[in-house]
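Hello,

Following up on my earlier ticket. Below are the two sequence lines again, exactly as submitted.
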Amino acid sequence: MDSSAKKKNAKLTWRDVGITIGTLAATTLLCYALRPFAGGEKFEAILFVVAVLIISRFTNGYIYGVAASILGVLIVNCIFTYPYYQLNFTLTGYPIAILSMLSAAMITGTLTTRIKEQEQLKIDAERERTRSNLLRAVSHDLRTPLTAISGACSVLKEGGDTLSEQEKNKLLNQIEEDSQWLIRLVENLLIVTRIDAPDGGANIAKESEVVEEVAASALTQFRKHFPNVKVETHMPDELLLVPMDGMLIRQVIMNLFENAAIHADGMTKITLDISREGENAVFRVTDDGRGIDPNLLPHILEGDFKRSVGSSEDKKRNMGIGLSVCSTIISAHEGKMRAYNGQNGGAVFEFTLPLDMAEMELYDYDEQQEDE
Amino acid sequence: MSNKYLIVIVEDEYNISSFVSAVLQANGFDTMVAHNGAEAIILITSHCPDLVLLDLGLPDMDGQGIIENVRGWSNVPIIVVSARTRERDKVKALESGADDYITKPFGTSELLARIRTALRHVQLREGEQAQRQTGVFHTGDLEVDYDKRRVYVNGEDAHLTQNEYKIVALLSKYSGRVLTYDSIIKHIWGPNAKQGNQILRVNMANIRRKIEPSTAEPRYIMTEMGVGYRMAEGED
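Thanks for your patience. The regenerated structure is below:
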């Protein structure tokens, strides 16, 4: 936090330089424009104090405000004070003008920096809270299967000959199931750390992908873990290209499938629809289970991890992490995600991603050429 | 006395190497384990194994270095073992001469399938190298006729364009193995092809619409996200 504030003060950015020069130029022009109406009054210095205030407020650090006040004094001296277009440092009141503009810049700069620090603190605290919630939820989710695995192992080791073949198999299957679940959990955690980095997910590498390739890849992965769940797919006839990090969107679809497979009671099949709506691709995962509890619905995508921690009826594992990973990924792609209950009562998870229109038009054209 | 295939497993994690070794031995392979890069090179040069299973993350050297070293003097099939999030490493390994890759965590059936495919391709390379692009390739209901340069699904012509045919023929030649986007593009559009693999993706999307019953569950050409494409193993 400290270092980031320091960095902001030290770094000259084009944006801030632009604001400084732009504001000063605009003020100078304004002075010219207002001159005929001023009746000889010396109003320019006051306007430049306002300009310095504005610059200090909208730039990072003191440097721009101070530079602007010095420049402002020079401009007023050179352009708007007799003798025009020359610098004259012998004028009375000159030190007062420069001092008042400098102090305006310093005071505004200090106030602005302090406000910004407060805002940053608030954001940091919020992030810290989310992180510790996540950590708590994860520890809980790790403990249960790990206890089961190590328990089953010691039974197998000590029980030896007293266990029937069937009992042994049951324990081994449990170990396998639990460890695979752990693998998937860790996969999701790795993704969270990749996106939730301080640079705000700048390391997402987007490339235009064909939507059905991502869907197929997610489906193949899902089938490995849930070979008996029925999945129906409806893919678009037209070629849809979406700029995305394919591995991440695949994870979203897998998480939604898994969520349906584990949580949708009474579900007989999952449906994945991908279609085009205007300049967006819409991905919709629907199940025919009993739907989402209306009390949970408003928070289900927010990563409200607390809800499931410690609730004794939560025998099945908490999908808070999986779903919140989904919405984090989708918002990092400038997409939208929502959850609702469908007409048949099952849950619907839907997300939209912007299409790569330029690329799609290009290939549309190519194809027509080839056909001719 | 033993005519079993010898597989060298290069893996620094003891638990993983012992489980992989157990699986392979149970399935009729001989195995040797190297726990670091230096050991691996010694084992490979002194025993000339039939296949190398190589984990890319080793303590003493980059797995990439081992591939380059071994490829300097041997065509032994190399299967790379890598973590899921490292697509770039996989592509790099394939481009420097690895035959295939498998993603951690993997299942035993997947591992065995990859190993068998890689071993089979060595036999093909040695045996019928020249004949491969004549005759007919079969997998499921798909048929690639190299003489007529046509692809049939359920006996019906799929009406592929020139480039589409070339892509399918290329993949079928290496069926069961993954081909990177770059290597396919170089084969079809030449070494000076425009950057980017968009054109290949678009061609593949069109091919799938012509030959696959469902584009979301392809049976013949599988996508390996971020790496390339893999054609289902051929049936003779």
